[in-house]
Amino acid sequence: MKKVLISLFVFVLMIQGALASNFNKSIKRFDIPKNSISISFKELNTGKLKSELNSKMPVSPASTQKLLTYFPSLNILGEDYNFSTKLYVTQNKDYYIVLGADPYLTTDELNLLVSKIKIKKWGELKNLYIDDTVLDNKTWGEGWQWDDDLNPYMPKFGAYNLDKNLYTLIVRPTKLSAPAEIFSDIFYPATYINQTETSLDKTDLQFLREYYITPDSITVKGNVSHEVKTLIPVSYLRKYFILRLDEAFRNAKISYYGKYPKAKLPANATLVYEIKHPIAQATKDVLKNSNNMIAETVFKLAGGKYTNNTGTESSAMAMFNNYCQKNKIDYTKIHITDGSGVSKNNLINADFMTDYIISINKIYGTEKLQKMLPTAGEGTLEHRMFYLKDKLWAKTGTLSNISGITGILQTKNGHYYAFAIYETDGNSKETDKKMLEEFIIREAYNKY
Questions:
Q1: Do both 323 and 424 map to the same domain?
Q2: Are residues 308 and 420 in the same domain?
Q3: 3-state SS, residue 389
Q4: Rg (Cα) of the chain, in Å, rounded?
Q5: What does the pLDDT read at residue 209?
């Protein structure tokens, strides 16, 4: 009996070794430690393991996490869901703007909404309230990097989403050796510490948020030889929203001298006008273009609908856990803290990710997933793996020292696999990590 157990143990080790060695040829091409690489390939329809390497090792999913959070969110909100911003009026002529955290809402649309206010006497409005209870007031994710707060790909998000929560800062050269001119494309009170110099042929600008002065203090330093435009994330979403609201009243020639108190919409109010945007656009922007702000907004909105309350991180997590429980997905070995994967506090593993893909494939079907995920030449795969167009559908992920890709692969032999590849290594180049992913996928495509 003892010999049988030993033989079985050796056989299992041999099988694991064979599975792990499938991609040795690809891995040896790059100077990336094998113990920092995590791989899982499973048959899409049966879930049978085809190959793996460190597949249960905890890794940061980066933006591949959007696969985990978006499908449960879409399930709760519904594929016919619309982001919505509404204007109501009560019997005593008080107006309410009910925010829906619409990530597509623009200043022009806010102007249109305000223009629907009907005023009889002297064009003056008595009271306007804002119902912002759709989401909580936490506008950044847990574990997000404070020194990334000028990154336009991860702006703050919340009930007051407007103009993608970004504005444009313009740096324009003046006279040679003199400071450049610095201004924004829209009024938003900020302090710009000008440490620039106009150059004849050199541009090397840096933009720094000076938090020890104020969150709206930005230092611009370096040389500038031509006009430079850069997107700046808004620090205070409500302040930016109110400024645009003031402008909307002036444009509509409506006088309003009150404040904008927060208040829950009363039951007897009548809908005057509504701005809507379909969630179908968000599906493309989150899964194909990896938009962090929209992913976070959708995740919290779904959490709010699930709990029938204000959307919060905790309600979104409860929604995600319930989705996993209903679909018999074991989520006890992972830890997620946000909707986009920006936080390095998130931990998953490649084995879980392939199981998850197999599960959502049963729910949505392969054909539908293929339409929702980018193939080669689309979205975040725009410049990658053209030879696998319409054979690969995957979500990518990148953070400092981390790279990953996960999705569905149809091989040369016509077989379908769920796969996940992650590299966590601070000494290798990002381009090497991406190339390793491509070599592994190409090897799987040709051999499986």
A1: yes
A2: yes
A3: coil
A4: 26
A5: 86
Per the listing, tokens 């379909």 go with 278
Percent of the chain residues past pLDDT 70, beyond the cut? 94
* Residues shown for the chain: 448
Q: 281 CB contacts (<8 Å, ≥6 apart)?
A: 104
**Domains in the chain, number:** 3
Q: Which residues contact 345 (CB under 8 A, 6 or more apart)?
A: 142, 143, 335, 337
Q: What SS3 state is found at 53?
A: strand
Domain shared by 132 and 217, yes or no: no
Other CB atoms within 10 Å distance of the CB of residue 245:
20
Task: Let me know if residue 171 belongs to a domain.
Answer: yes
3-state helix, strand, coil in the chain (%, to 5): 35, 25, 40
Question: Minimal CA–CA distance to 97: which of 82, 84, 79?
Answer: 84
pLDDT at 103 over 70: yes
Dist CA 83 CA 311 (whole Å): 14
pLDDT band at 433 (very low <50, low <70, confident <90, very high): very high
Output the six-digit token pair for 396.
Answer: 């990518």
Mean pLDDT within 434-439: 94
pLDDT per residue as tens digits for the range 361-390: 999 999 999 999 999 999 999 988 899 999
Write down the pLDDT at residue 185: 93
Contact status, residue 237 vs residue 158, Cβ threshold 8 Å: yes
Single-letter amino acid code for the residue at 434 = K
How far apart (Å, rounded) are the C-alpha atoms in residues 195 and 26? 48
Angle between helices 65-77 and 313-326 (to 10 degrees): 90
